[in-house]
């Protein structure tokens, strides 16, 4: 199929109805935790103790919570700290500095997260859905379809698990902490808006109410759900918005990002600029470079004209290979020319480090498989 041929858009916004994950401490606000503990017949301050263990001390074994009486500890742990995720496969690369985990939820659903340690930071890439309904043809996750939305606690637990791995020295480089969160794993975050917003709150609330990671260190990605971008802007937060654009023209983007059939490039960018104005954060434009599809010099010029003068930064992503894909990464000379053209328009641009490619843990590769 050529880049100009059209296929019907297969967009799924609502996940199929399934049993809900068990209630977890991370699903609740601080006030809701105290209410939940009181409903169980315990003093409300016990909720603060539980929160301190989970969010501040990163405890994952109730036996460690020795400031709670044994009977109380067992009851509260059963009710508010149920086991949500089980690691069924772990893969490492980059000398042990990149860890991909395949998680199994209570209902057997699989999804993935990736922890990446750099010299100056440790970034956790989390999933917001099991699968994805956006149907982008170059993305392994999109081709799998949407299974269900993740709960707030299922998202937070990915981060907490990464934080434990860092704190316990599991990642090469010795003990450390997770400093950055990117919602760039499986799923379209803004299609699971309520749970994602709750997760951002838990991740960024000061300890012990939450994990205490700065909002400015959190990035929420989207393929361009305009009403949800506008809603996020109204939340008055300082998280970074990452827009997966992948094409500057509607004709090509209709194919590469089928949601473009509903909200065109101009509408999506207008929403992004409004978010930047409200948050004061520059928008990150994600652009996967695909050989002979979207990497032409004239498209770089068109993209530069659309972006210049705005609070923006472009992340060029060499396309990561996925099974059965006919597409591949751009030639080095075309990538270099694309960068040059954007810079000539005064648009800041970098080429993203493709961490995790060897373990299918890079952008567009997450498919939640337990097979080699």
What are the main properties of this structure?
elongated; 2 domains; disordered N terminus; Probable dual-specificity RNA methyltransferase RlmN; 372 residues; DNA polymerase, domain 1; TIM Barrel; cytoplasm; S-adenosyl-L-methionine; alpha/beta; EC 2.1.1.192; two-stranded antiparallel ribbon; 17% strand; ten-stranded mixed beta sheet; tRNA processing; 11 helices
Concise description?
The protein is 33% helix and 17% strand. It has helices at residues 30-39, 45-56, 70-80, 140-144, 152-167, 193-204, 226-234, 250-256, 265-279, 297-307, 332-344, and strands at 86-93, 98-104, 110-117, 122-125, 129-131, 146-149, 180-183, 218-222, 240-244, 283-289, 312-318, 349-351.
Mean pLDDT: 91
Radius of gyration: 21 Å
Tally of individual helices? 11
Helix content: 25-40%
Strand content: 15-25%
Strand ordering within the main sheet: 1-2-3-4-7-8-9-10-11-12
What is the CATH homologous superfamily assignment of the largest domain? Aldolase class I
C-alpha termini separation: 30 Å
Q: What is the strand tally?
A: 12
Give unreliable regions as ranges.
1-10
How many domains? The number is 2
The CATH architecture term of the largest domain is Alpha-Beta Barrel
Structural class: alpha/beta
At the third CATH level, what is the topology name of the largest domain?
Answer: TIM Barrel
Oligomeric state, counting identical vs distinct chains? single chain
What is the succession of H and E elements? HHHEEEEEHEHEHEHEHHEHEHE
Q: What is the molecular shape? A: elongated
- The first-level CATH class of the largest domain is given as Alpha Beta
Main sheet: strands, sense, barrel: 10 strands, mixed
Family: Belongs to the radical SAM superfamily. RlmN family.
Subcellular location: Cytoplasm
Cofactor: [4Fe-4S] cluster
EC number: 2.1.1.192
